[in-house]
Amino acid sequence: MATREGTWAYRDDHDEFARTFYRRFGDGVVSSIGVGTYLGDPTDERDDAYHDAIVTALESGVNVVDTAINYRHQRSERVVGRALSDADVDRESVVVATKGGFVPFDGERPDDPGAFVGSEYLDTGIVEREDLVSGQHCIAPDFIDDQLDRSLDNLGVDTVDLYYVHNPETQLAENSREDVYDQLEAAFERLEERAAEGDLNHYGVATWEAFRVPQSHDSYLSLPEIAERARAAAKTVGNTATHFRAIQCPFNVFMADAFSVEAHEGADGAQSALWFAQDAGLNVFTSASIMQGRLAKEMPENVEARLDGESRAQRALNFARSAPGVTCSLVGTSSVEHARENVDAGRYEPLGADAFDAVFE
Known about the structure:
Blueprint: H1 4-13, E1 22-25, E2 28-31, E3 33-36, H2 44-60, E4 64-66, H3 75-86, E5 95-100, H4 113-122, H5 141-155, E6 160-166, H6 177-196, E7 200-206, H7 223-237, E8 244-250, H8 257-260, E9 264-266, E10 269-271, H9 273-280, E11 283-287, H10 301-304, H11 312-320, E12 326-332, H12 336-345, H13 353-359
Parallel strand pairs: 3-4, 3-12, 4-5, 5-6, 6-7, 7-8, 8-11, 11-12
Antiparallel strand pairs: 1-2, 9-10
């Protein structure tokens, strides 16, 4: 697993970046740009492209790789594992994050997805039918247990550094908000147990809408309530402190709701997800940091003019990692060329606090 000594040594070996490129994560440090592995067809050709891009990034100064068991039908996790093995870096220097929640296929989409889910998960008792939402999503403890084991095998690691419960707001389609909080607490208890056993180092919640929408929205989940449920879970299993460390949510120039929507009750009133996370000591990993490539093609001129970087993609990345509380901005990297471009964004300073705030005035 990633260690304090390994990540700090990695930073010292890559001292050519701007001053704030590496940021604290636990007792270690991570690059403020990370590799994402969501997009792409489930093909051998895309696997090879991802492999080479991830190896390039890891050897060039980026020490965060983010994936999920359902991404590209488990292929993304497997190629991350292969890249970790092949890259000229120590395992202890790289933070590996993955997620569980969506029922994954295995390598390719089956001809009959329902039959696959039935035989692989329902008939085996891994998933109870009443815990499965929309035929594809489950956060019950036994399922999370199973998915973590599969992820460890796919990645070829003994410990996952950061394990997310994936898009728990999906459960709101068929369950009350209070029921989803209860489900999360049960999942957190299992993750606290797995942390005590050494199978994961930290855990968190990865969302698409839940943390960046108003309280009245159907997909809303309270970050303060989730943090409290994590503390309760740690207490229940006898851990002295919670291993709940991070959240993931979209943030970019066009999707700035995690900064601008004040939907989470802090000590002094309503706060945005980013401000609440910063005050609570939670790390934030942003997804969709260049909006799946859209920001490489277009960006508001008044924002772009404030940002440093040789390319529009680099400037978009530097906007995302300028926000308060952001530890790392993730960007899909499926070619060596794009990997190098993304890494090089870290040679420029992001916006300072005043300049960032001015964008929203």
